[in-house]
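Cross-check.
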Amino acid sequence: MPAETDVLRRLTAATGVYRGRGDGPESGPFVARMLVSAGLDGRAAILDYEATNDSDGLRHVEHSVLVLGADGRLELHVASLELPGMVRFTQRSPGHFTAYEGPLVARIVLATPRPGAISYAWWWSRDEHEPREQSRADLFRTA
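Predicted model, tokenized:
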């Protein structure tokens, strides 16, 4: 399988619950949880992600599906209360997904740095500058 689809292959082969901590200039410190499941006979990874902290409780929830698009590139379809509906992020380089829909230039960086580990980061800019990392969680499989 080519490097462009490695993250899909790794996630569908390592399903389960991942937990960890995160931080960032926009998010501040938080605890993260991601449930990774496989769908469509391993041709899709379903990511259910949430972030909480002690002062506010549940801060962020999203449901995403990672699939191979019609053009042969990976696509991450993300639904979250902060987004105006389902937003499609297209992989531009391995693990780097960009979207230019809506008011923000946004990027998601999804990496599997080693077996049983996921790094999940949101990047964006509120002006015309290049996006920068606003929130990142480092998660480890618990089951």
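The domain at 3-141 is CATH 2.40.128.20 (Lipocalin). Residues 70 and 84 are 23 Å apart (CA to CA). Passed to J.P. for a second look.
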